[in-house]
Amino acid sequence: MEAKLPKGYEPHDVEAKWYEFWTGQGLFHADEHSAKAPFSIVIPPPNVTGVLHMGHALNNTLQDILVRWKRMEGYEVLWQPGTDHAGIATQNVVEKQLAAEDSSRHALGREGFIERVWQWREESGGQIINQLKRLGASCDWDRERFTMDEGLSRAVREVFVTLYEEGLIYRDNRLINWCPRCHTALSDLEVEHQDQKGNLWHLRYPVVGTDRYLVVATTRPETMLGDTAVAVHPDDERYADLIGKSVMLPLMERPIPIIADDYVDREFGSGAVKITPAHDFNDFEIGKRHNLEFINIFDASGVVNDNGGRYRGLERFEARKAVLADLEAAGLLERIEEHLNAVGECYRCKTVIEPYMSLQWYVKVQPLADKAIEAVQTGKTRIIPAQWEKTYFEWMFNIRDWCISRQIWWGHRIPAWFCEACNEITVSRQDPTACSHCGGSDLRQETDVLDTWFSSALWPFSTMGWPEKTETLQKFYPTSCLITGFDILFFWVARMMMMGLKFRGEVPFRDVYIHALVRDAQGQKMSKSKGNVIDPLTVIDEYGTDAFRFTLAAFAAQGRDVKLSVDRIAGYRNFVNKLWNASRFALMNLEGFEPDGVDLQQCELALSERWILSRLTDVVAEARQALTEYKFNEAASALYAFTWHEFCDWFIELSKDDLYGENAQRKKTAQAVLYTVLEQLLRLLHPFMPFVTEEIWQALPGVRPTVSIMAAPYADVSALPADQAGAAHMELIMEVIKGIRNIRGEMNVPPGKRITAVLDCKNPEISGILAAGEGYVRSLAKVDQLSCGEGVERPSQAATQVAGEVEILLPLAGLIDLDEELKRLEKEIAKVAKDIAMFSKKLSNESFLSKAPADVLEKDRQKLADAEEKAAILRQSLARISALK
């Protein structure tokens, strides 16, 4: 009898076929006119320059599990996809291409360069979208958006103008993160901090009118050229008499005041610090408090400007060398000590960023933040796990105004025009032809573009057609939840909260689920330098998408990082194969079976059938509850255990006698239960493993109720007979079978050898249960003669085990040769003892411990633990056999 499924599951043959089928049938498309309850989620838009990495894979797998589940639960689901224009990243990509052609953006001019970027986007951008499709992401691709498309650009302009008109957007000359290579301001998120070994230079500043020096410590001695004060703590008695006096700034020969400020740490260095308000964020605040002069010593490329005196024209790090040499020559370099410093770098070009005074555009965020704080405090939006609420509040209560301007060309150009006649600014929804202040026509548009996060902050409503009052907005906003990483909780999530409340009057999402990082098996962050990066596409090619997705879900515990290894993915490929093989068995035994019209309530069910149906009902409830609570790992664990252990290992074996037997009615009932459990199980697993479940489901007998499993109800067990008492009886019988199997294994009884078993029961009820399950015990435990009851005669030589209120006794006479078994065990124990000695010696060798890589040490420790566990089991078996002689 041939199965409808091939012998082995080949993901490559299946995945592309079904994805094309799903999209062709329009199964991902959301209908805003549907009467169904809405469920909506917006994708965290990946950069248009991006490629799929593990963070994307985890994030989008969890989203897809939710949306597939909700569709099957009867919701009208919108999963809104799209990409971010990624201003700096995209400009860098295209600039590198131009450099390879011996050209530049300046050679092309602004309009020519923008045209070139759009050309790149059409030809090469958005690669990650195709990679998400390989992951099985069931987004509504008909609605795909791009942050620079016409509709979203209109939304950006509407928001900017409105905020400006309300006084919430302004310009100011302040300190910002500046990239001297990209020539633009950067957000905090765009600055990556790397701990680097550096120096702390201790410099002597002469106190004017005395022979004393104030010693200041700095990691950036070149910035002293812009010092405008030295600060000490007001309560520091060492310097109390110097407050109000001056020091002579070395090399610049400029007197600067000695001031007192609580910011100073008396324990750091000498307790005196140099203040450079134009080149340090903390100094900037001190400078404002004390009305100090702000002296900018660099140009936009990090080269010393005219304010740097004789160092003018030197690149900043060359200036550092020159300044230190001159200080040392003047006897003003007291000492140098090694110092670990967190150096900020541009996230794209890795240039060290410079705190830089610059005229920029800002959003006054406090009025917006207050409502976003209140929304989480009152539960309008939940953050899950709740521990992230504290982080959210810490940032929001200490929020600073948001620098939204960037000095690049690719992005939303700020809709502000400067009048050459009156120097006033006109901000407008349409390009103006005249100054709104004096009526002059000589206008010049701002060259800056908006921070990418500005447009992505509007994502939940701009993607649905705002500022138009669309039916999509009416149906799907606010969205149901957002799934994202903790690293953008502040920079994206909080800003979406602020903008959603401001422009829609409602929170943008009801729930925010924060997932953890994907790390390697040892818990280390994946990085190319460490060589521990796992490429999702390589894994998908080797093991299939379903195995990869299920692995991610199985390890996605709330609040714990996902520790991923290729071995774990290979393990879940075995799970996919287990399901496949069980389904092949089922299909081979469902030939001629017609599921239509079968009512299990009317069938006379065997005990094992009542048990598996009760367990199916339980696991449906467990999976639903876990998914409702965003406990993806618990849902995956429950489905894994039910599929592998209860359905495949137990129920299929328990059903074979009836499936292969001569009783036609029994066979038909066994087929009905087998079909029902498998069909419902495929639905339960579909959100996690969409491809293999669709392939198997389509091969089941009978007429398909829907075109695809993803359009079928998630699980419908309401009509199944429930028999919890019968299920408990079956569990006891299974415990007895496991007990007999354990003894057989420990005693090395040949698998095919049929044996005698004695079951000593504690009461008549237990005896009755086991008597009813005698057939299962005989069949699955390979028992020939079975005695069961209370106070049964106990054999003189027997191996024993306890299963609940049943003592299992297996007479060993004639079953095994006790002497030979003792010899075998002693030989095995000696062999394992050698392994233990070898690994113990290895792991106590200090030289080995200091040189061996962490993964090698971990493997050897695991091998030692395994050997010790094996030795313990063997010694127990030896003692048991010895006691029988």
Task: Provide keyphrases for this structure.
885 residues; alpha/beta; Isoleucyl-tRNA Synthetase, domain 2; Isoleucyl-tRNA Synthetase, Domain 1; four-stranded antiparallel beta sheet; 27 helices; 29 strands; 44% helix; 18% strand; globular
What does this structure look like?
This protein is an alpha/beta fold and 885 residues long. Among the domains are: 184-355, Valyl/Leucyl/Isoleucyl-tRNA synthetase, editing domain (Isoleucyl-tRNA Synthetase, domain 2, Alpha-Beta Complex); 421-447, no CATH class; 561-705, Isoleucyl-tRNA Synthetase, Domain 1; 727-812; 819-884, Helix Hairpins. It contains 27 helices and 29 strands. The strands form ten sheets. The chain has a four-stranded antiparallel sheet with strand order 6-5-14-16. It has a four-stranded mixed sheet with strand order 10-11-9-12, covered by helices on one side. The chain is globular and about 110 Å long. The mean pLDDT is 92. Keywords: Aminoacyl-tRNA synthetase, ATP-binding, Coiled coil, Cytoplasm, Ligase, Nucleotide-binding, Protein biosynthesis. Its EC number is 6.1.1.9. A motif ('HIGH' region) lies at residues 46-56. One of its GO terms (molecular function) is aminoacyl-tRNA deacylase activity. ATP binds at residue 528.
